[in-house]
Amino acid sequence: MTIFETNMGNIHINVDIKNTPISAQNFIDYVNNRFYDGTIFHRVIKDFMIQGGGFTKDMIQKTTKTNIKNEAKNSFKNNKYSLAMARTSAPHSASSQFFINTSKNSYLDFPGQDGWGYCVFGKVVKGFEVIDKINQVSTSNKDEHSDIPNDSVIVNRAYNA
């Protein structure tokens, strides 16, 4: 189990190493390397998702490891409170960023609009009220970034328990 201690409360996540070995191990490695400590949930779209894992509170993007293979064919669904890899329009572009679905987002499931979809590799098991609180924060746009929380949602510490 991974625990994210945020300034809004703790989020407990289970990842599925058996069915999504690449994505789950990638996430675990980032946690073990303390990569997520001090990052923020930098994109919040109400009733869609909250995204984190790549930016400091000053909106400086962190340097990541190599991109990983998209494992969205695992048949897991982008249901509320599921954890998925964030990526660009390129199917195999995921690295450190992830998102937690705050509603059922079936159109992100394999095969999605691009033949790939977004890989779900875990789920929130505790801290649903924290996810729901983050889902409600007010946001604005800054430079080329949109949907940034006006008050930073900070991951103070992430660790595997």
Secondary-structure map:
Elements: E1 2-6, E2 9-15, H1 21-32, E3 39-45, E4 49-56, E5 82-85, E6 98-101, E7 120-126, H2 128-135, E8 139-142, E9 145-149, E10 155-160
Antiparallel strand pairs: 1-2, 1-10, 2-7, 3-4, 4-6, 5-6, 5-7, 8-9
- Number of helices in the DSSP assignment: 2
**What is the H-and-E element order?**
EEHEEEEEHEEE
CATH fourth-tier homologous superfamily: Cyclophilin-like
Q: What is the total domain count?
A: 1
Helix content: 10-25%
Residue runs with pLDDT of under 50 for 5 or more positions: none
The CATH architecture classification is Beta Barrel
**Major sheet:** 8 strands, antiparallel
- Classified by CATH, the class is Mainly Beta
Quick recap of the structure?
This protein is mainly beta and 161 residues long.
How does this model look, in words?
The protein is mostly beta strands and 161 residues long. It has one domain: Cyclophilin (Beta Barrel), CATH 2.40.100. It contains 2 helices and 10 strands. The strands form 2 sheets. The chain has an 8-stranded antiparallel beta sheet. Strand 8 (139-142) and strand 9 form a beta hairpin. The N and C termini lie close together (6 Å). Its EC number is 5.2.1.8. Pfam families: Pro_isomerase (PF00160). GO terms for molecular function: peptidyl-prolyl cis-trans isomerase activity. PPIases accelerate the folding of proteins. It catalyzes the cis-trans isomerization of proline imidic peptide bonds in oligopeptides.
